[in-house]
Write a structure and sequence with these properties.
It is built from 5 helices and 6 strands, in the order H-H-E-E-E-H-E-H-E-E-H. The protein has helices spanning 3-26, 30-44, 82-89, 104-112, 149-194, and strands at residues 46-55, 60-66, 75-77, 93-95, 119-125, 132-141. A 6-stranded antiparallel sheet has the order 3-2-1-6-5-4, sandwiched between helices. A hairpin with a 4-residue loop joins strand 1 and strand 2 (60-66).
Length: 195
């Protein structure tokens, strides 16, 4: 095969890769998640709701969407946050009097201009029982009360209904990384062909 023919095939592959990458990055059912972000605080009588996605390769968790927040406005390490503990344990967690304790939530509060008093966080499990793809966290039960086990049951039911959508985001991020790796490999091949 001639160098020109190889270059044409590489250009075609690069073009296809870009289309796939753009499609995966821009798809998803974000409006549905945003609807849940609006709905959940009303149902649970709380101030905020956030949906977090796990990046298993980096051991980071990032915000997909949240009340008054942009995508990826919050990113925390798996080991140092309430959301990380929920994802690691695959179990719900209640936190009280957070404004009186030190933790990563203080930094996030400063970053977002919010004060966290109490929180409830539940895992979003993947289609396999052994995987957790993210978490849903609600903050500041109103008026001055704490989250209950009934709130937890409601949030867990909502998490199970959101599971497929969140797992699709989880899988899309893995595919996007794979496509980035393919792009790097194509550039290396091009470099060898140019020599």
């Amino acid at each position: 095969m001639s160098t020109n023919s190889l270059m044409e095939r590489l250009d075609d592959l690069r073009s296809r890769q870009k289309k796939i990458d753009d499609t995966w990055k821009n798809t998803g059912n974000k409006p549905l998640l945003e609807f849940f972000i609006e709905l959940i605080p009303r149902v649970l009588d709380c101030e905020r709701c956030s949906i977090f996605i796990l990046d298993p390769e980096a051991n980071d968790i990032w915000l997909q969407c949240g009340t008054g927040l942009e995508e990826r406005a919050v990113s925390v390490h798996l080991d140092d946050s309430m959301v990380g503990r929920v994802i690691s344990s695959a179990s719900p967690l209640f936190e009280h009097n957070m404004n009186q304790r030190a933790g990563v939530h203080e930094w996030i509060d400063i970053q977002t201009g919010f004060v966290t008093h109490n929180a409830l966080c539940v895992p979003v499990k993947g289609s396999s029982e052994n995987t957790v793809t993210g978490a849903i966290q609600v903050l500041n039960k109103q008026p001055g009360s704490e989250f209950t086990h009934d709130d937890c049951e409601i949030l867990e039911k909502l998490a199970s209904h959101m599971q497929m959508n969140i797992e699709n985001i989880f899988l899309r991020q893995q595919l996007a990384k794979l496509l980035d790796d393919v792009g790097v490999a194509i550039k290396k091949i091009e470099g060898h062909l140019d020599q």
